[in-house]
Amino acid sequence: MRITIVVGGRWHAFDLAHELNKQGHLFRLITNYPTWFVKKWGIPHEKIVSLPLTFWVVKAIYKLGGESLMMHCQWRVHQWFAKRAAKYLSGSECIHGWSQWSEPSFQWAKTRGIPIVLERSSAHILEQSRLLHEEHQRLGLKWTETHAKIEKMELREYELCDSVAVPSLFVERSFIKRHFRREKLFRNALGVNLSSFKPATKAPPAPSDDGLRIIYAGSLSVRKGLADLLEAFALASLPKATLKLLGGETPELKLLLREQPPQVKILGHIPQEALVGHYQQSHCFVLASVEEGMAMVQMQALACGLPLICTTNTGGEDLLRMTGSEGKPLELGIKQFPAGFLVPIHSPAAISSCLRKIANEETLWISMHNEAINLASNQLSWESYGQRAIEHYKDLIEARK
């Protein structure tokens, strides 16, 4: 097959391209990242179409005016890349394009009867906007809305494509809630680099011995539910427990993060290669997000042996279900799985209850630690993710014959 990937940014597109190239199915990878950077994923130079002008424009916009200026300019930047990308599709048998960057490519494919896969890594665009608007309102903050033209463009992409690739049940449900046809949805959980993320040679001391070590990694933003996580940590009242927050601060949360007890350690942005050491020193990973398709940090944490505590809106449910368990219902809307807990959004009480169970039940932590390692090593490779995508492309192409 000759599969062309169209992506503004990186996301997990480069990991997919790497797997397609290994199997001989990658035709082109069209991106706004520089060629030298893309080649780190083992993609041959001749298969890379780099359109880096928008990459540098986006960096300049963020430096000059941050997120608010970017949202104002977003439509033009996306349109600029998308129009140029569509000039490099000739010879493709299937187009896999990332949402908000691919409409002209999809129009090109549609007129030629070529199958189209749209990658939507987050909730349906209208559900995403609703959730983020409500969350900012709940916290008394102003939300910089997604550009109206971006929303309309993405809705047109939904109609043009043959299938929408989504990473999780949460994203799938958000599309169904907006009356999208279920048969057009292709759910494919993401992977993790198992050679980089792995458990420590020697596990950390049990939480009951040394105090519970909790970790979160990702942007310190409203979307990630940091307010609920901090409240949950305070509610848990665990002696000697610590909470590490790894990630860049955002302006809207600076006030919230400013006055925290010494047990909350805000370490700022940490390079990917340094994350594994922090995971290996911790006991559990908590993600209280209100909206995201599948946070890749969850797979990284599992691969290092960390039980998850995650909300229904993170994609973590799919990962926890990979053990074959449907989850054991507990109080406060909690579901307990072999490798962690699933909790409702906006529920610090539920998160704090899970933290106390991990801290106080040593055999539970040991069991979840081992289940996390087993789950990741058997289910979460990029190779498995790529193979599922390849089978989907085959089905789409065969259906056109």
Number of domains: 2
Low-confidence stretches: none
Shape verdict:
globular
Secondary-structure content class: alpha/beta
| CATH domain class of the largest domain | Alpha Beta
Mean pLDDT equals 92
E-strand count? 15
Helix content: 40-55%
Characterize the biggest β-sheet.
8 strands, mixed
Radius of gyration over all CA atoms, rounded: 21 Å
The H-level CATH homologous superfamily of the largest domain, spelled out, is Glycogen Phosphorylase B
Output the strand order for the largest sheet.
Answer: 10-9-8-11-12-15-14-13
CATH topology of the largest domain, what is it called? Rossmann fold
Report the span from N to C terminus: 13 Å
Polypeptide structure, described:
The protein has helices at residues 13-22, 35-38, 53-85, 103-111, 125-138, 148-160, 169-177, 207-210, 226-236, 254-258, 272-280, 296-303, 316-321, 348-360, 362-379, 382-399; strands at 3-7, 26-31, 48-50, 94-98, 116-119, 163-166, 185-187, 213-217, 242-246, 264-268, 284-287, 308-311, 328-329, 335-337, 340-343. It is of the alpha/beta class. The protein has 2 domains: 3-191 and 382-399, 3-Layer(aba) Sandwich (Rossmann fold); 207-379, Rossmann fold (3-Layer(aba) Sandwich), CATH 3.40.50. It has an 8-stranded mixed sheet with strand order 10-9-8-11-12-15-14-13, sandwiched between helices. Strands 3-2-1-4-5-6-7 form a 7-stranded parallel sheet, with helices on both faces. The longest helix is centred in the N-terminal third of the chain and has 33 residues, at 53-85. The protein is globular, with a radius of gyration of 21 Å. It starts with a strand and ends with a helix.
